What we know:
By secondary structure, the chain is an alpha/beta fold. Helix content is 19%, strand content 37%. The chain has helices spanning 15-18, 33-39, 75-85, 101-120, and strands at 3-7, 26-30, 46-49, 64-66, 90-94, 127-131, 135-141, 144-148, 154-159, 163-170, 176-182, 188-192, 197-204, 206-212.
Amino acid sequence: MNKCFIITGFINGNIKNIAHISKEDYIICADGGYRFAIREGIEPDLLIGDFDSFTEGPPDHVHTITHPIEKDDTDTMLCIKYAVEKGIHEICLIGGMGGRLDHTLSNLQSMAWATEFWHSRHMKGRTIRMLDCQNEVMMLKNDTLQLSGTPGEKISLISYSDACMNVTAKSLKWKLINAHLTNSFPLGISNEFLTDQCEISVGNGCLLILRSKDLG
Length: 216
């Protein structure tokens, strides 16, 4: 398993319009995310959660890991931990933002946990993203990332840690060269692709990379 999709309990839009899921991909539903999956005819490989928001209980025909309602980890965090422990290289959360703000922030914290876990063990080539119909969120720690896009496409760089040092962004409208970003000043909001490729690097710190589009 090299790629895993985690269907979260809140999705703004249709799964199949948000992400391309192939037969080879591993699919985990976080608790009530199972409703979104079956609505679009998607059969998950695994269900994880306390099922407090899925009152009819998990189906018998799908492998399920049930956790108590009173626990430290959110259902999405449990799914991420499972994927990380299985050695999956690419994790993609579908949904997970746009509903309750506390849930959105906790999902960002869960993404940061995975990023820190991989970094502390020198595990290269691992990525975690969160997608909905309007946004793509990635995290980068002490590393370099190549991205494809279209000229004029919006991209924002936000320091998730207290500070991100030596941030460089190439082929964007407003260049950053060894910049110092902090989590208390939004310097990197609404930059733009100049070409169909860009390169982003951060020397020290955990950087949020957001690609967003206006709806309407």
